[in-house]
Amino acid sequence: MDQIPYIKPEKLREFTNNRRQDFTLLFKKLKAKKPKNLDDVIHELHNEAFDQFDCLTCANCCSTISPVITEKDAERMAKRLKMKAVDFISQYLRIDEDKDYVFKQTPCPFLMADNYCMVYEDRPKACREYPHTDRKRMYQILNLTHKNCEVCPVVFCITDELAKNSIFKV
Ligand code: SF4
Ligand code: SF4
């Protein structure tokens, strides 16, 4: 995999849009074929990518989208901030169209100017798992992966590699 550059969200949206036909076809084929080695190939690209790319130079995810926040996440963050969970929820969270808690605002209220997370050790589970490219059964989250191409430079580059990979050639 080539060196991954930092790409701003607006550029990622443009690049993803320019590749919409390729990427849509790729994900459609992967969903239909469910190649046995899909997880292995994506996980290898994920490891290769994050070995060379430092999230502290990016923070696109924390700046532009909210994780889903469970009640346990909210309780943990509230405890860290020495707040009651109910007050934490009323100050920082709202319920979205899927009836999940999300942050009221983006960028995330806990994202600091140097891109560090103020609640890092107690951050939501979804933050720990983002961008989900090391998950098992990747074929189940291909729509989400396509969507994340617009946010995460690593996901965009992994998808670009997959589209070029002879095993999955579209
Ligand atoms: S809680 Fe931390 S890791 Fe999660 S979105 Fe906010 S700043 Fe990012
Ligand atoms: S997970 Fe992706 S979008 Fe988030 S900081 Fe890392 S490279 Fe950027």
Overall description:
This protein is mainly alpha-helical and 170 residues long. It folds into two domains: 9-62 and 131-164, no CATH class; 68-114, no CATH class. Helix content is 51%, strand content 4%. It has nine helices and two strands. It has a two-stranded antiparallel ribbon with strand order 1-2. Helix 3 packs across helix 9 (153-164) and helix 5 crosses helix 6 (85-92). The chain is elongated, with a radius of gyration of 17 Å. The protein starts with 8 loop residues before the first helix and ends in a 6-residue tail after the last helix. It binds iron/sulfur cluster (SF4) (2 copies).
Short description:
The chain has 170 residues and is mainly α.
- Tell me the radius of gyration: 17 Å
Q: Give the number of DSSP strands.
A: 2
Structural class: mainly alpha
- Major sheet summary line: 2 strands, antiparallel
